[in-house]
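Hello, quick one for you while I still have it in my head. A protein chain has come my way and I'm curious about its shape. I'm sending you its amino acid sequence along with the backbone structure tokens. I'd be grateful if you could look everything over and explain what you see. Here's the protein in full, and shout if anything looks odd to you:
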Amino acid sequence: MNPIKQITLYLAFAGSAVSMAIAVPTHARAQEHAVTRQTYPFYTDRLDVEVLATSAGRLQIIRGGLGRVEVAAYAANGVAAFGLSDEPHVLRLTALGAAGADYVIVVPDNTSVSVRLPGQRGFQPSARYGSKTYRWNASVEAAAPDVVVPQHTLDGRFFVVTTRVDAPARVRLLDVEHIRSVEVRLEGTEFRIASSRLLRHAAGSASTIDIDPAGDAVDVVIQVPSYTEAFDLRMGTQSIVLIKNGKLSELCRPVVRQEVGGYTRLTYRPARGVSCSAEYP
């Protein structure tokens, strides 16, 4: 068997450092046996796995080891690749020119894992114990990854700091004395966080995003896709806006509620303080 040269590439992906391992065969026949392997130091309790491959494939997630994530990938007649972003912790899998691809991921026992397969709109929790195997069919194109797009604007005046396909389960507003206003819009087909001045990337994962202004007063706009079934906006630990079964409700006062083009918009001014009550619908 001819040896396989393994090349490690360090890329900048959406503002985060990504280490990507690609197995490059030294001989065309070696592609039949090309297996890509990589071990990443890992000390957090959550990992999102996003499959971007257009070819059919399988993914197996198993538990074992501490302080590291191990990945192995095989692509029949093609090249398998994967990369782990630093923040949020998303492991992306893909394959080029492959008839099929197989991936095995070993994660620590205490790590919560969510998986998004090609064609799916959101991440789905994986089993917390034992192993779990996923399968998918070939698709025309891979699902668009969740990425940061800081150069875009909303309404021509708000800088978009985060955009993704689906809304997270919750967004938390931190350091609210510096948040002059926050507007929630239930509209469109993308989730976006935008602000009146450039912010650091809103930190978080597939389930939770924290917004910390860390400086001067700022206005924040949160656009939640109109098809969203569940969403929770919190000011610290207090929920101020809920979407449940697709219905948008404000839980605190004062609030300005507007209907714009058939869609609902809610505006709070956290720096001025809000009053919350279980009596508010």
